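Weekly sync notes, structure subgroup
Attendees: PM, AL, DS (notes)

Item 1: joint prediction request from the bench team. They want all two components modeled as one assembly rather than separately. Inputs as received:
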Amino acid sequence: MTPSQDVTPAPRTGAGSPSPVSLHGLLTHEPVVVTAGAELFAATLRAQAVRTEAVDWSPPMGEVTALDRVMADPRREGANQSAVARMLAAGAELVDVRPAREALGLAPDQFLHAGPPLAWERASGPMRGALIGAAVFEGLATTPEQAEAALAQGQISLDSCHHHGAVGPMAGVISPSMWMFELSDPVHGGRAFCSLNEGLGKVLRYGAYGPDVLARLRWMTDVLGPLLASAVRRHGPVDVKAILAAMLAMGDEGHNRNRAGTMMLLRELLGELIESPAPTADVAAAVRFVAANDHFFLNLSMPACKLATDAARDIPGSTVVVAMARNGTDFGIQVSGTGDQWFSGPAAVPDGLYLGGYGPSDANPDIGDSAITETAGIGGFAMASAPAIVRLVGGSVSDAIGATERMYEITVTENPAYQIPVLDFRGTPTGIDVTRVVRSRILPQINTGIAGKVAGTGQVGAGLVNPPAECFTAALDALAAAAPTWVEE
Amino acid sequence: MTDGFDHVEIRTGAYYDSVSLMQVSAQVTGVPGVRVALVAMATELNLAMAADAGFTIGTTPGPADLLIAIRAADQPSAQDAVTATTAALEALTARRHQAGTMGPGPLAPAHTTGAAVQRQAADLALVSVPGRYAFAEAMDALEHGVSVMVFSDNVPAAAEVRLKAEAASRGLLVLGPDAGTAVIGGVGLGFANVVQPGPVGIVAASGTGAQHLMCLLDEAGVGITGCLGVGGRDLSAAVGAATTLEAMTAFDADPATQLIVVVSKPADPVVAATVRAAAATLATPVLLALLGEGHDDLSAVAERAVEMIRGSRPSWPVWTPPGPPHASAGAGGGLRGLFVGGTLADEAMVIAAAGLGRIDSNIPLRPGWALGQASGSEMLTALRRCAHWVLDLGEDRFTQGRPHPMIDPGARLPWLTDALEDPGTGVVLLDLVLGHGSHPDPAGVLAPTVAGTSVPVLVSLVGTAADPQDRARQITTLTSAGAEVFLSNAAAARRAVALIEGSRS
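Output from the run, pasted for the record:
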């Protein structure tokens, strides 16, 4: 006992609890102040020993009248809250594996591709390569030259994967015979589809279409797809969202690193694969194929993310981005409050490291639907959870943490299901807000693979990329046009 | 076979991850003379890539072996590349053995107001970005649950209305736009003086007016619970006193506030009636002070407030230079007012016009007394033709592209020099604003120009003994230069009129 403990505190007098009209007690305690603008005022606050953060403010991108109109839209905040609530609530279960003709109802001459809609004339090398490969694979042409001619003449119809509830990595070409993962969102009833991952190196999605590429695709169609289908059907729905949550704690970010996710998927299905009536050699080949491909789970991560972002679509007034996708020529985004409209700009060449003797001059502009992972708050947004890959751009662990920290500035919420251990299990930054992007001038951070720009080359590297700013300023203009008038402009 | 010199080497027992090796390859490719550098683990994929690139690999290495394949212009360049590779690999190894430095470093500052509010769990935002950008920042602050002071001006009235409606729906307050001064929780925001805590809550639609009032109260030993600047347009018909009413209610709910003083330029009559009606419903007495002709000046308002709190009226100090005081104005007899505070200029004109008649100004009391849109030397010429004039140098036309004269008192010097040289000048009337945000030594900037003039120079000083500029030193600097210093702006104006009228009689 110390003497001071005998002292009875003076009875408290005065204020009592602040009334609801007293501005949350603002008048009665020293405030913590954020300043935006003149540094002088931050300096005077610091001189008074007031806790102060000076915003690193700069004028927003795009038209300020459009920004004001969107900021004034009384629907915006509620719409965004409901968009992200739906995004977070969405589940993702792998329920089936089926050929695209069946799963997506693709006709024999109907192909899908990554990114916003694209005509053959504007298609980049890897996109052309993948389409050529798919045409030969489907027997619509016997040689690459024939395939190219058929595509150039418009004999094969092309459309965005996103328009059919699907996503495809890199070129993202889906043709009728390819087997698709089918995922279901048990909360909102959504469906999303993605092809099976071929592995790394010379593969169709990177624009390669040599005999080995086509042989692998045939094996995937004849052996791997049916095996996975029977395994999944016997296993019952696989909780992909649970695997995503677990893999983030194991050094994956769900876009460029899916190593733990792939192993967990295989672990989940291994019993059913072994029990398969298929020849043991086929089962062993399938298991080896999946086990040897660290990216196999990407094609489950992507549709899981699409289920989440699709759940947030079509909420009037919402400025939340629901798709970011690239076709190798254009980078396009879609926003909840503006329906299926694409806002596009030229795709940039990623900044990264190159395989072997390849360099930036060999790289194709950004390509693939895989930025759906960032749209849903993982991938580049969860970079802090994947320190093993941050050196893709010569970065350090603190750069990775910094990248994730920046993404909190452009997102509406945090996903409690996807946690980042190194950030004290903080949820991943989720729900990109167009207004926050144009105001902060911080563009979404995307981790990506790099395709060779010449058709047939395949992968040449991996790195980081951002969307072009005009996607967001164009989206802002459209949101402003859809917002109620509030001030004479 | 390709041109140049190929170096192919396999190192065993050295494993590096592919990402690190891609970095090494990139680094070595940068060595002069190097065309291709492939430093990679000898996996099948990488071996095939090396073969595709035309390298010949004699042995059959395994995936745990390191492949170094370099093609350079000549043998010495290749040797340089090998040296660089070795150094880069050693650096990698060294980095592995470094102590862990994982974890977040200091965060970069946030880029939006809302992000910073969230990060700091702040309870107030102060926005002073250019006016056309202020709406988004202020809205963002409100959405993140904090009240916001908007110092920025040139914000459209519709934006102000929208912000204040948003604030009301959230139980928050928007001070401004164009709010120069606030004291909240004892903290001065924008331009604010260091005053003692006490029983008066100030709600002010005028920045320098609020500063003047709080300094007078402080001098009389009466402190404040806070000062909420509401912005010059709050009592307009469009805005309808939205913030004034909220601020009055907030002070009424604060047990420490015994008197609420509302200071505004002449308000819209309907809005003024609304404020009066609201004041009547509050438990705390409200002193509603509308400034302008036919109303009390700020000193009189301060006197009434002090009397309500302490039961006696204060008097305001005057500091005079050594030697006999001026008996009359200079021969020209004209009043020359150079103000940085618009409300102080307006108050001086109201007092002076009662005795002197017409006073030309850029913020004229009557439309016919306006100085027109001239600036610079044209303005100087125009001023020479006026009997009496008062300039508000804080007005927009004088602050385009340069700091406000409260921050940069030097902006006033050319005008002051000209006024002192003008044979028509009888008295020069200045204000001097101390406190947070103001120049650290405004008296020191003005004194050399004032010193030596025979014309009376009267300074109305807005400041307290606790202000960071050291008020006593500011006063000494001014009086040593021959200026008379007044804590009451009204008293300074009356002294000017008396000197001018004294020399007429």
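Discussion: The first helix of chain A runs from residue 39 to 47.
Action: AL to compare against the crosslinking data before next sync.
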